[in-house]
Amino acid sequence: MFRILFVNIFIFTHFAALAQITSTENLLKEMHKRYHGKFYKHITFIQLNKIFQSDSVTENSVWFEAYEYPGKLRVDFGPTVGKDGYIFINDSVYYFKDGFLERKEKKINESMLLSGDIYCIQIPEVIAKLNTLGYDIKKFREDKWKNKPVYVIGAELGNDTSRQFWIDKEFLYVVRHIINENGLIQEIHFSEHQANGKFYIEDEVKIMENGKIVKTERYAEVNPNIILPATVFDPNLWSKIHWKTK
């Protein structure tokens, strides 16, 4: 009887808390409350890419990726490492070609922000980044995505062209993301989330442009228990240090 009562109280308080989420800031607070401090420091994985043209696969590739929460992502374009790829460090990205730095530019990685960093950095910083990227965070509503309740930030009902992201109401992770760049509508779907310790990691990403699928990503050899040296993310050591050789 006590156990049933406890479960009922838990369910009631859990959904009562969710029912109070009526704004983007409220949602960010709940996401922090749920996952802040529970992420692993580092994670590595292999990304399997398929490129599509006219609904047919035209290219397959393998990327080797390392992520340090928050703000650092290294991507090596396979089959070799330390040649072509890029490193994100906070809001800057370093591009490499044939083992040498090609260029550096300021850029916020939106997928990093929405799927990982959003839980790890302070809420005012998250809001500042969302504003910089052009999200209208005052636009907040509830909807459904694949028959599951979600929160939508950035667009009114029926608007599938404005910059927006969709958060699963139960698990509080991103499931849909829409970017409008000068009329090119890019839509990103995050799916097949797997429990990994105290948080969830998507296993598949689909990218569409103006309604046509252009790329899929699947992940293999996911390792959230690895400890990486800072040198892995040092642009000056791009061709000399790599996690895959550790």
CATH class value: Mainly Beta
> In the CATH hierarchy, what is the architecture at level 2?
Clam
pLDDT < 50 stretches? 1-13
In the sheet with the most strands, the strands line up as 6-5-4-3-2-1-15-14-11-10-9-8-7
β-sheet strand percentage: 35-45%
What's the CATH H-level homologous superfamily? Answer: Lipoprotein localisation LolA/LolB/LppX
Largest sheet: number of strands, sense, barrel closure:
13 strands, antiparallel
Distance from N terminus to C terminus (CA atoms, Å) equals 53 Å
* Approximate shape: globular
CATH topology: outer membrane lipoprotein receptor (LolB), chain A
**Domain unit count:** 1
Order of helices and strands: HHEEEEEEHHEEEEEEEEE
User: What gyration radius follows from the Cα positions, in whole Å?
Assistant: 19 Å
* Class from helix and strand fractions: alpha+beta
Mean pLDDT: 90
Number of helical segments with 4 or more residues: 4
Number of strands: 15
Helix percentage: 10-25%
Keywords:
alpha+beta; 43% strand; 246 residues; 21% helix; two-stranded antiparallel ribbon; 13-stranded antiparallel beta sheet; disordered N terminus; outer membrane lipoprotein receptor (LolB), chain A
